[in-house]
Design brief:
Blueprint (H helix, E strand, L loop, with lengths): L25 E3 L9 E5 L15 H14 L3 E4 L10 H10 L1 H5 L4 E3 L10 H11 L9 E5 L3 E5 L11 H11 L7 E5 L20 H12 L7 E6 L5 E6 L2 E6 L26 E8 L2 E9 L9 E10 L2
Parallel strand pairs: 1-5, 2-3, 3-4, 6-7, 7-8, 8-10
Antiparallel strand pairs: 2-11, 5-6, 9-10, 11-12, 12-13
């Protein structure tokens, strides 16, 4: 049962860095996209010293990086907790080394800030993040225009999403000024607004008032034109999928962090009992809409990677 609270590296793609809102910080031209663009969404990778096999699974982490590189997606959304400890510069050194394949394939990686990005002194944590992603320097939230049909808001759930906050005002401004060609809006953030609510003592990853306020806003926002909204999150080290008031909510925290079992509520559209759910979501844009697939590591204990498709869904164009 859900608890509801009401509260009044990138290379080959052509990127343009805009000077001020509401223009996107990153723009990928239509001509630089595949005929059927692919977006990969996942998070909770916890890159760190590969001898650490408690907080994260370094073998699976590397498998996922390699498989995503094979996909050659047009965009990779990382929903946070990219490092284990954001204050440790070496965690980003490990990330950079383990994701060399992504730079070889010229993948566009757009991360959101998670709570592990802030494990340490905040100023140093942000400096480490910006050093790895220099195009984001000075930003904690930013937007991406992926061709003409997809617009992405990468958010910071360590900052307020409540009414009247700077970030909420920025979100409203971005949505109020969508290009008339936009059909799909992604909100990429770490903490989920919608998730399977767990009883104590496993309730520490349940949706928080900060993100529930975002859900409430998305229920009531009136855009100038019809669009489909997809909210991509992590934080819970598992996979969940919901459809609430026309908004698709994805929890894909299977990037390598220590798996977390969940008791699935009726609203969770993913009903498989398999565990753990290391993996990622592939979203393919076609003429009629988005085709979603959850790509799962079939056997994390195996010596070689094998993947299987465990969830399929569609999001029709408006």
């Amino acid at each position: 049962m859900r608890i509801r609270i009401r509260i009044a590296v990138w290379c080959a793609a052509t990127l343009c860095f805009a000077a001020e809102a509401p223009q996107p910080l990153i723009r990928v031209a239509e001509k630089d996209l595949a005929a059927s663009p692919v977006i990969i969404a996942y998070g909770d990778t916890r890159f760190t010293d590969p001898t650490n096999e408690t907080a994260t699974n370094p073998k699976v982490r590397r498998w996922l990086v390699a498989e995503i590189a094979k996909e050659k997606p047009d965009l990779v959304l990382v929903s946070g907790d990219l490092p284990w400890n954001g204050g440790a510069a070496n965690d980003y050194v490990v990330y950079h080394a383990e994701t060399e394949l992504w730079r070889t394939e010229h993948l566009l990686i757009t991360p959101a800030l998670g709570n592990h990005e802030f494990h340490g002194v905040e100023r140093q944590c942000l400096e480490n993040w910006w050093n790895e992603f220099p195009a984001l320097r000075g930003k904690r939230w930013y937007s991406v225009a992926l061709g003409s049909r997809v617009f992405v808001l990468n958010l910071d759930s360590a900052s307020s999403l409540l009414p009247g906050s700077d970030q909420r005002g920025w979100i409203q401004g971005q949505l109020d000024n969508l290009a008339p060609t936009v059909q799909f809006v992604f909100l990429n953030l770490h903490h989920p607004p919608v998730a399977d609510v767990q009883a104590a003592p496993d309730d520490d990853h349940n949706p928080r008032p900060n993100e529930i306020a975002l859900e409430n806003y998305l229920e009531t926002v009136h855009l100038r034109r019809p669009v489909r909204i997809v909210v991509s999150t992590g934080h819970i080290h598992n996979y969940e999928r919901f459809l609430e008031n026309g908004v698709t909510y994805l929890v894909e925290g299977g990037g390598g962090a220590k798996p977390r079992p969940v008791v699935r509520a009726q609203g969770d559209l993913y009903r498989e009992g398999a565990f753990p759910n290391y993996g990622y979501v592939r979203l393919t844009l076609g003429k009629l809409g988005l085709k979603g697939e959850m790509i799962r590591v079939a056997d994390p204990s195996a010596s070689a990677a094998r993947f299987e498709t465990k969830d399929r869904f569609e999001i029709p164009a408006p």
